[in-house]
Every structure is written in structure tokens, then in C-alpha cells.
Amino acid sequence: MNARIIINTIGRLVQIVGILLIMPIIAGFYFSEKAVFSLVTVAGASLIIGTLLRVKKPEKTRIRAREGFVITGMAWVILSIVGALPFVFAGAIPSFTDAVFETASGFTTTGASIITDLTAIPKCLLLWRSFTHWVGGMGILTFMLIFIPSNADEMNIMRAESPGPSVEKMVPKVRETALILYSIYTVMTVFLITALFIAGMPLFDSICIAFGTAGTGGFGLRGDSIASYNTNCQTIITIGMIMFGVNFSVYYMLIKKKFYDVLHSEEVRWYLIIFFSAVVLVTIGTFKGTMTRLGWTEYPCYESLGRAFHQSAFQVASIMTTTGFATTDFNLWSNMPRAVLVLVMFVGACAGSTGGGMKVSRCILYAKQIIQEIEKYIHPNAVTRVRLDGKVVGKDTLRTANVFLMAYMMVFVLSFMIVLFDGYDLETSFTSIAATMNNIGPGLNVIGPCGSFAGFSILSKWVFIFDMIAGRLEIFPILIMLSPFTWRRK
């Protein structure tokens, strides 16, 4: 284990956090808020500590797969702790555990919150809170790679941090790949801010909500999340969530005019099929006409089919892309539409997007492996291959996807069993793990769109913090970092 390269890289990361705090610091001085001094203190300390960690240069600069996973796991834990300090120092979130929970939720783009009164939080801290979504959406380490001279070994960091069954470079150099990703990401975010502002949303709100939408995070600025904004703003956010849930390599292919590859992307096709199918089912389950025919008159529903479709599209987009915004309290809906939302929680968005969940591409691979196994039973001598986008999927990719599912289920069950000790109902406990591991935010019952995670015990909150980071990094970087085998010299 090359400890020096790990320390050096973590030092660079801490320095970058200090630089990222400049934006909320400027906002703090603009709004003349005392909380700005907590941001200044953390920014200054981050720059100093980061510089000290980088004083001694590593003799060996190679980053192997093991170092890549450890750097990624440690970086996200440290990032959550450092990012929480402004909230603690300003007194906005006095509890260290709660502050780390809120910040981890921000960077992992989960959007789960322990804050019950957003009006009590200074605007500069609200901006930092939303900005963590944007930074974490594409990945802080991916952002860091832009400023590092290209090194083939640094692909191990990008693979460890980027979501999806497999990650490949768009161009030969890792640095250029990171720059392309963030360039596309930035341009799309600026367009979203502009569109929301033109649609009537205040500029400060437009910036914060765009950060949450782009990062598919979901931190709102109001107690009702997005419900009090006009329909045009809600529609723009719906479209934005869907777009940021698409694999960013698709946008690169569009720039390169590779329209054939885009049209034949199985993942994007199934992503849209699942989305529209879920919207239709939820619309049926929330429209008064169908609710009356089914005899579900005890549940709230929408008189207009158009209104039912609008609300359904927003909530499905929000949950499937794991953003977590809400325009209505879907906790009050009937069981059928709520069940659909829980199902798309697990499916998630596309690989290589800012969305969470298990990823559509993995679900496709699992389905194709089941079909392949059925075909083998029927035709034992047949030679079959799992293909995605017309290409044969390698055995290593399939094995990794299958092992991920097993690790995912193991962590999910263990977390669920611990949280049950808090005494909440089964629905609340189950969806709390689903919401944090899949980086969604709201769940059902106590943690619905109008609820919060504030009432859970300290132990459960640390379980959620672990699940949020593990879910964002797709489990293995955290498990590898915690494994004693990783730290053995031989």
C-alpha cells in the first residue's frame, strides 16, 4: 500500500474543498450573514491542512486499483466531515452527527435531511448545502483529476468513484475525460439556472434548485420542497431531472454527431421505457376517474387527468433519478402508485449519470442473464452470449454486476436490522434504507416528503451515513477501505 500517494491525494482534495467554499463565502458577505465566518474558518483551515499533507512528495506516484479504491473511500468520508464543520461552527446544526448526516446527504446527492426549519438556516449555508449536490453529482475526485497531469493509473480513481457496471475513458487521457464530463455538466447546469429564472423562480432559488437538480440531490429551500413554485418551474425541473439521469457519454456522442450510437443505446431506451411506464401507472393510480372506478375513494386524487400526469411525471422522475424533490405528499397516495415509486427507487438512473440506484444497465444485464439461463435449460448445447448495445458483455463485467447485487443485499439487510431497533414501523424502516442506499432522500411514512430523519437515533444516523456513501460509491470502495486485507503489506 502506497500510503504517501494516498495522503498526498487526500491533501489535494482538502485544498479543493477550501477553494469550493469560496462561492458560499461570497454569498455570505453579500447577504451580510455572521455564518460566513464559519465558512472562512473552514476554508482557511482546509487550505493549510491540505498544504501540510502535501509537503512530503510521494516517491512512487503509481495509483494501483487498491490505492484508487482506498483514496475514493477515504476521500468521501473526509469530505463529509470537513463539509459539515461550517454548519457546526455557525450553530446552524449544533449536533456533529446531524451535520455530518446533512453533508454526507448533500455530497452523495441523497437529499435526506434532519433540518425541520429551513428558514432558520443562513442563505450562505443553504447555498453550500445545495452546492454539495452539484460537486458530488459528477464526483469530487473526478473534478480533482482536471487539475492533475494525466496518468493512466488515475483511471482507477475514476472507476472507483463513477457509478455503473463499467467506466471507460471518452478520450485517451483521463484528465481530458474529466474535463469533458464537467464541461457538459456545467453547460447543462447554466442552461437550467437560466430556464428556471426566466420561468419566474428567484435567482438565488434558481441556482440552489439547479444545483440540486443537476446533481440529482433534492435539497429544497422551502418546507414544501418544490410544491409552491409555479407549474412552468416544476416542468423544467422534471425535464432537467430526466436529462441528468442519462449517461453523460450519450451527450458526448451527440456532440460528436454519433446519432446512430445514441439511437441504439439500450440503456437509454429502457430508461425512458421504464420512466414512461411508471408515469402511466402512477397517473392511473392518482386520477379521480380511475380511482372512483376501482373503489379507492378514501385516497386523495386529482380531478384533472393533466394534473395527475404532471404530478406523476414529476414524482417518478424525482424518485427514479434519485433526486428526491417533491411537488406533493405522495405519502398520502394509494398503495399502487406508492409501490411503483418504491420499485423505481431500486432501478435508479443510467450508469455514468449523476443519478443513483442500482442503475438501468445492471437491471438489463440481470434480465438478460435470466433469459440466457432459461435458454440453456431448453437448449443445453447452445452457445449464448449476453450482449448490450450489440456488444458482447465480458465475464468480468457480469461477475462484478452479480457480486455487486450480493454485496448490496448484504449491506441492505444488515442496515435494515439495525434501524429496526429504533422502533419505527416496517414501511418507514425499510424505505429509510432504500432511500439512503439508493441516494434518493424521501421514503414513506415518517420519512415521507413532508417528514425528516431527525427522529432517528445516533446509531441509525451513522448507519444512514455509511449507506449513503456506500450507495454513492457502489459499495466496493468502502468495503475495500474497511477490509483488513487491504492494509496488509503482502
Give an account of the 3D structure:
There is one protein chain. It contains 22 helices and two strands. The longest helix is centred in the N-terminal third of the chain and has 26 residues. β1 and β2 form a beta hairpin. The chain has a two-stranded antiparallel ribbon. The mean pLDDT is 88. With 490 residues, it is an all-alpha fold.
Question: Which structural traits does this protein have?
Answer:
mainly alpha, 490 residues, globular, 1% strand, two-stranded antiparallel sheet, 22 helices
Q: In summary, what is this structure?
A:
This protein is mainly alpha-helical and 490 residues long.
Q: Layout of helices and strands, plus pairs?
A:
Blueprint: H1 3-20, H2 22-30, H3 36-53, H4 65-90, H5 96-107, H6 123-138, H7 140-145, H8 155-161, H9 174-198, H10 203-214, H11 231-244, H12 248-255, H13 259-263, H14 266-286, H15 288-294, H16 305-320, H17 335-347, H18 360-378, E1 387-388, E2 391-392, H19 395-419, H20 426-437, H21 458-472, H22 476-482
Antiparallel strand pairs: 1-2
Helix pairs in contact: 1-3, 1-4, 2-3, 2-6, 3-4, 4-5, 4-8, 4-22, 5-6, 5-21, 6-10, 9-10, 9-12, 10-11, 11-16, 14-16, 14-17, 16-17, 19-20, 19-21, 20-21
Put simply, the count of helices is 22
Shape: globular
The ordered string of helix (H) and strand (E) elements is HHHHHHHHHHHHHHHHHHEEHHHH
Oligomer: single chain
